[in-house]
Amino acid sequence: MAQLAASQVAVSVPVGSELSTRRSVFKTHRIAFHDKPQAAFLSLDLKTKNAWFRNRQIICQSVQQASVPKVAVSPLNLEDAEEPPLNTHKPKEPYTATIVSVERLVGPKAPGETCHIVIDHGGNVPYWEGQSYGVIPPGENPKKPGTPNNVRLYSIASTRYGDNFDGKTASLCVRRAVFYDPDTGKEDPSKNGVCSNFLCNSKPGDKIKITGPSGKIMLLPEDNPNATHIMIATGTGVAPFRGYLRRMFMESVPTFKFNGLAWLFLGVANTDSLLYDDEFSKYLKDYPENFRYDRALSREQKSKNGGKMYVQDKIEEYSDEIFQLLDGGAHIYFCGLKGMMPGIQETLKRVAEQRGESWEEKLSQLKKNKQWHVEVY
After folding, report:
1. Domain 228-376 belongs to what architecture?
2. Binding of NADP(+): at which residues (predicted)?
């Protein structure tokens, strides 16, 4: 059992037959809590969405001093480097990795398909949270016959330890790009996204050429464990934030004990389109003082003006608080389709003016202070 403070009360409650009847949808991993071996960790197959359970015990602790056990990770020498790894594998010499799993993340009513893809790199392509991998899909570049396809960049959706906590895998969150002919309304496979369809169609054991890692703008600053991090994502732009949050709330990392505030805004079309929602909801339950989670569902919710609820509308609801947090040094991150930024910028500018501030000056100061982080595509 995980270590508890002397003032805490721990009671082991056997999990009954309800869990055993669900075992078929779980994948089993052997892990340890606070470096002490424990029972198997069960991660829900992503077709049924993520959840956390342990198969032998549930720890019930005193309400006043509850402490949620975290997962031990290895190898801890991944914490030793002072600078992030950059472009250890270039397009001319990519690393050949192996697909571990491809799971559909979204429900039947979601527009389009988004997949969670786990890649085994054998520990040979290490990365930090917030970085990206390049993927070179098989086949020739149609614009340059005889040459490989171009590299496509994908934000990594896991921590440096990967979903198996052993430093040997990385996860991607990929939406399948499908083209529909505007005249006929039918799918035109010849214009579908080459790389996204390759990834979403992959099977365990398939080989994949990866490059990188790349990127420094979205690295998670860890110099202040009490800092505030405001994360704004649309769709698959949630990928780097999943990595941040797993590092903050799921993993036991000796060199990083997060005690600040993480606030996630996620914009998607509807409830079935939510990504990693069970994972985020668990953090909300376990760390109510350190995590906030706001969803903007454009096809199900209305903004205060009666229109569709987009992520910028949800931001506006909390604008005063967000500006106060930024004034106090909070970091703010944006990730998703580039079309998200104009609406967000307009909203922030309008709020700044209502507060009697110049948005241009404020934005300049945020960038100067390295509080402003944007990765859009």
Report:
1. 3-Layer(aba) Sandwich (3.40)
2. 155, 175, 236, 298-299, 308, 336-337, 375
pLDDT digits (tens, 9 = 90+) for 255-307: 999 999 999 999 999 999 999 999 999 999 999 999 999 999 999 999 999 99
274 assigned ligand-binding residue: no
Residue bearing tokens 């198997």: 40
Rounded distance between C-alpha atoms, residue 125 and residue 215, angstroms: 14
Interatomic CA distance for residues 341 and 335, integer angstroms: 9
337 is in an annotated binding site: yes
Q: Residue 186 has which token pair?
A: 């039918």
Catalytic residue among 154, 276, 283, 333: 154
Instruction: Please name the residues in contact with 199: beta carbons below 8 A apart, sequence gap of 6 or more.
Output: 102, 115, 117, 135, 137, 172, 174, 208
Domain with CATH 3.40.50.80 in the chain: 228-376
Over 70: is that where the pLDDT of 48 sits? no
152 annotated as belonging to a binding site for a ligand: no
User: Quick check: is 154 catalytic?
Assistant: yes
Sheet architecture: strand order including 95-104: 152-155, 132-136, 207-214, 95-104, 114-120, 169-175
Q: Is the pTM of this model over 0.85?
A: no
The domain defined by 76-214 carries CATH number 3.40.50.10540: no
Q: Is 283 a catalytic residue?
A: no
Active-site entry in 173, 195, 200, 335: 335
Q: Is 236 labeled as ligand-binding?
A: yes
Tell me whether residue 171 is annotated as binding: no
Secondary structure of the chain: what % helix, strand, coil (to 5)? Answer: 25, 30, 45
User: Does the annotation mark 127 as catalytic?
Assistant: no
112 conformational bin, left if phi > 0, alpha if psi -120 to 50, beta if neither: left
Among the listed residues 95, 101, 129, 155, the single catalytic one is: 155
CA-nearest of 175, 292, 285, 180 to 234 is 175
Tens digits of per-residue pLDDT, 202-218?
999 999 999 999 999 99
For this structure, is 155 an active site residue? yes
Phi-psi region of 373 (alpha: psi -120 to 50; beta: other; left: phi over 0): beta
Q: Which two structure tokens, joined as six digits, stand for 71?
A: 């997962």
Q: Of 129, 279, 316, 375, which is the active-site residue?
A: 375
| Token pair 């083209």 in the structure block, residue | 179
364 is in an annotated binding site: no
SS3 assignment, position 133: strand
Domain with CATH 2.40.30.10 in the chain: 76-214
